[in-house]
Structures are given as structure tokens and as C-alpha cells.
From TrEMBL:
A Pfam family hit: Sulfatase
Organism: Pieris brassicae (White butterfly)
Transmembrane regions listed in the UniProt entry: none
Keyword set, alphabetical order: Calcium, Glycoprotein, Hydrolase, Metal-binding, Signal
Protein name according to UniProt: Sulfatase N-terminal domain-containing protein
Required cofactor(s): Ca(2+)
Family of this protein: Belongs to the sulfatase family.
Length: 583
């Protein structure tokens, strides 16, 4: 243990040097994004159902981010990741993009891969984009990535690579959405997760190790392949989750297990290439799981409330960790948001980032196990549909607006029973591919330490009071929770916490005044793959506007005090509530 302690101390010093000195090679970065994975879907966070030994091996020897927040759905999350800004700054909040929308991250935004290229990184995206595809200007290889291999939209069938898109009026479009840069992969027949992993491994082995690498591996898993269909685990593998009673949950577990297997393959490739010891590995989910609904995948967010596309904890508080050989293992309780990755990764790479963004550099705090500099998270502002908002400030979380039709329950308890004993957590971890590769670096596992780390990740519900009728925000009142005591959001403090409510409502009012409105969803028949040999191609080739937003002007800000509160439009609900609280 003394040798191991000295090892961590030496690497910690080196880590600080890497941040501050110019003559030390910046780390390679492997950034892994799971799609629609819930809090209860990885075993290092306590799940006794789904075995994720490679993720467990990385997490328990890395820094587990216990209070990590993403956005509630795909497009806003990826926008925040790559811009370092809340999605409201760019009009990318709310419902995920359709393939047939002429919208994307504004072309005036410089994205994370472009910043990394400025300091010498090779940058590659493998997997999901989902940030604009109406014109070539919006595609990833024109936004800072040297290459893109994967899907441009939000999801695909795991076997046919087709995306089926249904418009609100019932119009259906379908076609291939899988590309090698601009070339449709019409003849591709591999299981989608394997195709992505194979390409990522090719990039690792083909990379010149003297140049830093940013490999953004954005998986399609475990997102449902297409709406209404069964989940699609690999057909060539034996089922390893027979202990799970619910058959749909069992299929979901197989998809997650294969994603975990792919992570093991990536770590082995880094080790075989000889660059694992200087690679920073990040793993996150883009949002909570859709346990129910049109694109349900039977993932589970418990003990948190809510699901994907909701501002409840289950929609936004997701699995996340960061690993590097120089990081001391820790369960870090600091508050962190997905927008923080921009300045944090740049700091880890040795670049000072002084631009004004919402993201905060967490690298020194993570390195040294200190408190997070972040004191609040704008969880959500929805300016269309129902009109609602959520803010975390310190230990408190405020939700206001019209939550009609929003998934506000606790989902998935019926899927949790096992009919047989699950695989042993520690044995699976210790025999994983990652553990084998770590042994080549002298990194080993102690049973007591691993179990203690897993125990430390468990979410503790201190407040034992549960409302008989769960609070659901309406246009007349909101909900307030102390998340330190009540992470399950089960005991509303709205009536007793009016001073806090007023303070947080004023803060939300400030955010509202800064928001770029999303505008109406405008879907274009020119995008129909039937017009392009059933391939989802770009259909606008001469885009010159600075912003792809449908509403070209910034939102003309309304305030709670210069409008009537008939609330004829859904977004006005939010302003009406603000006025009722502040008057």
C-alpha cells in the first residue's frame, strides 16, 4: 500500500505540472458518451442487475462524479458539452432535433474540438452527432473534427442503420443514417456498436502517438433503435443477464453489457498502442433513461424521480467518472455540469481558457479532491410546449411552470427483481479487460477499497418525510426540495421556503431574460430520404446565415411585469409564475 500511495502522490504532482507547464505533453483524451443510460444501470453505482465490469474497473480507480448534471435530452446535452454554455445561449434547449430540421449549433460558436485543434490535437468523432445536418456547414467534420464516422441524427436501428422519423402530423420518413464523413455506409452489416468500436480502435492504432488525440466516442447504446420496436442486443452473443426477471429489462442489460465490453476493447487498444498511461478517459451518459414512453429502453433512474426529457433528478443526474493514471481514486461530491467539460479538458491539456461561458474549470478541484467552484446549475428552461424551468442553487432545487404531461413519477421498480443470483460484482471487475490492462501499469484492486468505493457512491435519502401526494408544478405554484437531504424529490418545501423560492425565482428570471428562443419546429419535406435514394443526406448546400435558428432575431425579452397573465401561450406560464411569486 505504501508503494501505491507514493505512486498516486507522484502522479498528482505530475498532473499539476501538466496543467501549468508547456513542456509536458498534454494527455490523450477518450471521451465516451452513453446514450439514454440511467443511474441504476451501472454496477459501480450499486446496481445488482446489470454487470458493467469494465466501467466498474475504470470508475473505482478514477474519480466518480457523484453530483454530475447533464441536460434532459440528447441535443441540449451535446450542445452544452461542445460549447461550454447552457443550451439557452444558442437556442438549442428543449426537444431534440429532428433529422429534417434546418437547425443546429449556431455557426458562430467555436466548439470544443476546434479549441483542442488549436493546441495540436487530432480530433475524431465516432458515433452520434445530433447537432444539425441540414447543410454540410453543420456537420461535425466542419465544426472542428478531423473525421466523423457514425450517425448524424439521434438514433438508428442497430442492424439496418436506418432512422425512422415520425412528424407530429403523422408523416413518416426513413432512410440510412450512417456515414464515413460524407460517404453513406450502404453495405455496412456489422452490429452498430461493433462498427463504431472497430473504427475507434482503428483511429487509436493509426494515430501518431507524438500528437495528442481527442477521440470522442459517442455510442448509440443503450438508446432504443427505433420507436415501438424491441431492443436489439447483439445476436451472436450468449445472453449473460438471465438472472433478470423482466424480459425487456434483460434485453436492455445485454445492450449495456455490450457497451461495457466495447469500453474494455478501447482500453485494451490504448494499452496495446502504449498510450494508456497518458490517456484521460471520461465516461458520461447524455441524459437519464426513458423508462417509459415512445422511445422507452427499460433503463432505470431510481432512486431518482423522473425520466429523460424531464428536469427531475432522474432526467439529468447521470453516471459520470473521469480516469487517468495520475488521478487519485475518489468519490467526488462536487457539483458539476456537462458544460464544465470544455474548460476542464482544456485545463487538463494545459490551455488556459478565459472566454466567458457557463462552464467552470473543475480540473484543479478534481485533481486535489477539493470543493467544487460551481454553486448552481441551470437544470432546464423550456420556452415552448408547457413552459417550465428548474434551478439548483446550493442544496436546493426549484421547479416551476406547467408540468402537465411531464413524466414526474418514479419509474422502473417493477423491473428490478432478479430471479437468480447476479454475477459477483468484485469477481467480474477483477477479471475484466480493463483490470488486466491496468495490471500492466501496476494498478491493482483491493477488495475492501472497491467495496468501500461502491458504498460511497450510494445515494442517501436523509429526509424520511414523503408527501402523500407528490408535488407537481402547476401555473399556480412550484416545488422546492433540499437535495442534500431529499435527493428523491419526495418532500416539497415550497410553502415553508418562500424566501428561498423568491431568491431562486429571481435567478431564473435573469436566465430567462438571457435566453435565445428556440422558435417553432419547422420540418422540411426536402429532407425526405426518399428523395435521396433513402439516405439521410444534407439538403441545403449553400447556407450562409450566421445562425441556423428559425427565428433570426434574438428573443425580444418579456418580463413578468409588462405582460398580461392570461397565459394564452404556453411559455407565458413561466413568467406568470414569476410574477405571482415576486409580488
Amino acid at each position: 500500500m505504501l508503494v501505491q500511495t507514493l505512486f498516486w502522490q507522484w502522479w498528482l504532482i505530475l498532473g499539476v505540472i501538466t496543467v501549468s507547464a508547456n513542456d509536458v505533453s498534454p494527455p490523450h483524451i477518450l471521451f465516451i458518451v452513453a446514450d439514454d443510460m440511467g443511474h441504476n444501470d451501472v454496477s459501480y453505482l450499486g446496481s445488482d442487475q446489470i454487470s458493467t465490469p469494465n466501467l466498474d474497473a475504470l470508475a473505482t480507480r478514477g474519480v466518480i462524479l457523484k453530483q454530475y448534471y447533464s441536460e434532459a435530452s440528447c441535443t441540449p446535452a451535446r450542445t452544452a458539452l461542445l460549447t461550454g454554455k447552457y443550451p439557452i445561449r444558442t437556442g438549442m434547449q428543449g426537444f431534440p432535433l429532428y433529422n429534417s430540421e434546418d437547425r443546429g449549433i449556431p455557426l458562430t460558436e467555436k466548439l470544443l474540438p476546434a479549441h483542442l485543434k488549436d493546441i495540436g490535437y487530432d480530433t475524431h468523432l465516432v458515433g452520434k452527432w445530433h447537432l444539425g445536418m441540414s447543410s454540410k456547414a453543420f456537420l461535425p467534420q466542419n465544426r472542428g473534427y478531423d473525421s466523423h464516422y457514425g450517425m448524424r441524427g439521434g438514433f438508428i436501428d442497430y442492424l439496418s442503420y436506418h432512422k425512422v422519423e415520425e412528424w407530429p402530423n403523422g408523416t413518416l420518413m426513413f432512410g440510412l443514417d450512417f456515414f464515413d464523413n460524407d460517404i453513406p455506409q450502404i453495405t455496412e452489416e456489422r452490429y452498430a456498436v461493433d462498427a463504431l468500436t472497430d473504427r475507434a480502435i482503428e483511429i487509436i492504432f493509426g494515430h501518431n502517438s507524438s500528437t495528442p488525440l481527442f477521440l470522442h466516442y459517442s455510442s448509440c447504446a443503450p438508446h432504443a433503435g427505433n420507436a415501438g420496436g424491441a431492443l436489439q442486443p447483439p445476436l451472436y452473443k450468449k445472453l449473460g443477464s438471465k438472472h433478470i426477471a423482466n424480459s425487456n429489462r434483460r434485453l436492455y442489460a445485454e445492450v449495456v453489457r455490450h457497451l461495457d465490453y466495447s469500453v474494455g476493447r478501447l482500453v485494451r487498444a490504448l494499452a496495446d498502442k502504449g498510450i494508456l498511461q497518458n490517456t484521460l478517459i471520461v465516461f458520461v451518459s447524455d441524459n437519464g433513461s426513458p423508462t417509459s414512453g415512445m422511445f422507452r429502453n427499460w433503463g432505470i433512474n431510481l432512486p431518482f424521480r423522473g425520466r429523460k426529457q424531464t428536469p427531475w433528478e432522474g432526467g439529468v443526474r447521470v453516471p459520470a467518472f473521469i480516469w487517468h493514471a495520475g488521478l487519485k481514486p475518489n468519490v467526488w461530491d462536487g457539483l458539476m455540469h456537462i458544460s464544465d467539460w470544455m474548460p476542464t479538458l482544456l485545463a487538463a491539456a494545459g490551455r488556459r481558457f478565459d472566454e466567458k461561458i457557463d462552464g467552470i474549470n473543475q480540473w484543479p478541484s478534481i485533481l486535489q479532491g477539493q470543493q467544487s467552484p460551481r454553486k448552481e446549475v441551470l437544470v432546464s428552461v423550456e420556452d415552448r410546449d408547457n413552459g417550465y424551468a428548474a434551478l439548483r442553487m446550493g442544496d436546493y432545487k426549484l421547479l416551476i411552470g406547467n408540468f402537465t404531461g411531464i413524466g414526474s413519477a418514479y419509474y422502473g421498480a417493477e423491473f428490478l427483481p432478479n430471479k437468480e443470483k447476479p454475477p459477483d460484482f468484485y469477481d467480474s471487475l477483477a477479471s475484466s479487460e480493463v483490470a488486466k490492462m491496468f495490471s500492466t501499469l501496476g494498478i491493482t484492486y483491493d477488495y475492501g477499497d472497491v467495496i468501500a468505493t461502491r458504498k460511497a457512491t450510494l445515494v442517501k435519502q436523509i429526509d424520511t418525510v414523503t408527501d402523500q401526494v407528490p408535488c407537481i408544478p402547476t401555473p399556480n405554484r412550484g416545488c422546492l426540495y433540499n437535495l442534500k437531504k431529499d435527493p428523491a424529490e419526495s418532500h416539497d418545501l415550497w410553502l415553508r421556503g418562500q424566501k428561498i423560492v423568491s431568491l431562486m425565482t429571481m435567478r431564473l428570471r435573469s436566465f430567462w431574460s438571457q435566453m435565445v428562443r428556440r422558435g417553432p419546429t419547422e420540418l422540411n419535406m426536402d429532407a425526405d430520404p426518399a428523395l435521396h435514394n433513402y439516405v439521410w443526406l444534407t439538403w441545403l448546400n449553400n447556407v450562409t446565415q450566421e445562425s441556423p435558428l428559425n427565428e433570426k432575431e434574438f428573443y425580444k425579452y418579456a418580463t413578468p411585469f409588462n405582460m398580461g397573465c392570461e397565459c394564452a401561450k404556453s411559455w407565458q406560464n413561466f413568467l406568470c409564475i414569476i410574477r405571482s411569486v415576486l409580488q
